[in-house]
Structures are given as structure tokens and as C-alpha cells.
Recover the amino acids of this structure.
């Protein structure tokens, strides 16, 4: 055998490369604008991002692969739209300045198409498994996606409609929803957006940590997707479970031997030192 040949694992090499690249990108990131997708985000998570706080729960390689796959599907989607003969502009950059904010709102709209003189913004949302089917059955888009669509309509007056298109990356099940807003609705939602980002800027400037907006289940010093306790099933909010600073945010609770459960409608967590005997995590 050639002496230059050695055992290699290309998947391991790529996983390590993707992981280290993601760490480096996040470490060097400097926030200079608000993002349309942040309108539904937790203020505390946004505060950590703007402060470039330590990332305690970095994105794992398998999830980075998912993000890359989503990017490739977005490119395919835009190319297919163009092949139909429609006028398509992909990755439309937008910057919105508001005198009430110290920083602009900046982002990229997936696609803008023109059909019969009407302008549509199109956002592709790639999901997995039963996700797209469940969304269609519910008859409504995910709340965070609806807020993003309304954000685009509020800061891009040239758009007549927004379309949220869902595509399952594994089954390729697909469904979509269309949105529009009148002038008064756009102004009202814009005021809501600006108000939230004004609060964020104040927190960042004054070094004040905002309250949490979502909750988790913690048992045996670990995050749990759900916990069954006294005939009640408690579920963690996905916003916390996907946050890359969740261990920083919930450090006190993680270091305690007590259990943390969400409390409906209260925005706080309940902890009981003797609950670990009676509950069972799923």
C-alpha cells in the first residue's frame, strides 16, 4: 500500500470543519442591525446576541448540515420559480431606517416575484417530517412565520402580498399561506416592531438583562423536552430548546437539584425540591 495512504473519515473531517467554522463565525459576529426574523424572538436571547455573550450550547454538526440543506433547497426553489417564466428577484436585501431606533432593520427576503403587475414576497420555510402536513391541517402558519411575513409587509411598502411557503425536506410535502395588510394595519404592526426593538436597545445600552419570554423543563440538572408530573404533562418551549445560550440563561436552575416546570400564563418557573421522586421525564 502507498505509504501516503492513511485511514480517513470524510464525514468526521467535514463535521469538525463545520463545527469549528460555526464557532468562529459566532465568536466574530458583531450586531449592527435588527433582523425581521427577530420580531418573535425572546428579548433575553436577543440581548445575549447583541452582547456577544458566551455560547454555552453551540450548534451541533447534524444541525449545521440541516441549515446547509435548507440553503440548497432555497436556491433550487428560486431557480424553479425563474424557470416558470415569472419575474423573480432572489435574496432581496432590505434596510429600513426608523428615527425611533438607533440601528436599522436589515435582512434578506428570499424571493420577490411579479405576476400580472402585482408584487409578492415569497419566504420558503423548510421543515422536517410531519411538520408541513401538520401546518396544513391546522389551517394556519406558524406564529413566528406569520409575524415575519407581517414585518416584511410593514417595512416594504412596495409589496402587495407575502407568501409563506412550507416544504418538507424529507417527504417534500408542501403547503403555503398568503398575507396582505392595509395601510393602517401595516402602520400598527410597524409600531409594534419598533417598540420591541426600542426596548431591546434600551436593555443593551443600560446593561439590563430582560426577563425570559419562554420556559423549559429541567430535571436532574438537564433540559427535558417534556416532563410528566402529577397527571400533567409539561413541555419546554422550542425557543429555549433551540437557543445556543440556554445553559447561560438557566444556569441557576441547572446548578440546583430542584426541578423546574413551566407555569401557564405566569412567565415564571416553579421549582420543588422533592418533585424529582414523583415525576418522570419522557
Amino acid at each position: 500500500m502507498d505509504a501516503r495512504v492513511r485511514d480517513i473519515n470524510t464525514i468526521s473531517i467535514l463535521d469538525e470543519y463545520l463545527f469549528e467554522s460555526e464557532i468562529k463565525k459566532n465568536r466574530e459576529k458583531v450586531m449592527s442591525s435588527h433582523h425581521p426574523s427577530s420580531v418573535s424572538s425572546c428579548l433575553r436571547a436577543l440581548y445575549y446576541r447583541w452582547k456577544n455573550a458566551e455560547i454555552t450550547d453551540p450548534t451541533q454538526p447534524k444541525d449545521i448540515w440541516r441549515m446547509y440543506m435548507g440553503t440548497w433547497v432555497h436556491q433550487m426553489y428560486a431557480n424553479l420559480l425563474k424557470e416558470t417564466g415569472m419575474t423573480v428577484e432572489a435574496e432581496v436585501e432590505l434596510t429600513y431606517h426608523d428615527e425611533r431606533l438607533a440601528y436599522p432593520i436589515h435582512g434578506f427576503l428570499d424571493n420577490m416575484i411579479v405576476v400580472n403587475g402585482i408584487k409578492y414576497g415569497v419566504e420558503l420555510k423548510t421543515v422536517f417530517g410531519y411538520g408541513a402536513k401538520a401546518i396544513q391541517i391546522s389551517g394556519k402558519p406558524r406564529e413566528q412565520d406569520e409575524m415575519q411575513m407581517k414585518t416584511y409587509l410593514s417595512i416594504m411598502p412596495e409589496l402587495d402580498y407575502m407568501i409563506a411557503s412550507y416544504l418538507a425536506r424529507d417527504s417534500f410535502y408542501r403547503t403555503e399561506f398568503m398575507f396582505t395588510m392595509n395601510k393602517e394595519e401595516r402602520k400598527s404592526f410597524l409600531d409594534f416592531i419598533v417598540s420591541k426593538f426600542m426596548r431591546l436597545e434600551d436593555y443593551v445600552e443600560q446593561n439590563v438583562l430582560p426577563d425570559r419570554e419562554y420556559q423549559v423543563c429541567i430535571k436532574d440538572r438537564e433540559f427535558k423536552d417534556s416532563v410528566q408530573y402529577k397527571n400533567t404533562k409539561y413541555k419546554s418551549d422550542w425557543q429555549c430548546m433551540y437557543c445556543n445560550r440556554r445553559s447561560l440563561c438557566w444556569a441557576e436552575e441547572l446548578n440546583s437539584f430542584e426541578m423546574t416546570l413551566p407555569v401557564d400564563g405566569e412567565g415564571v418557573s416553579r421549582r420543588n425540591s422533592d418533585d424529582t421522586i414523583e415525576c418522570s421525564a419522557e
Remarks:
- The CA atoms of residues 258 and 273 lie 4 Å apart.
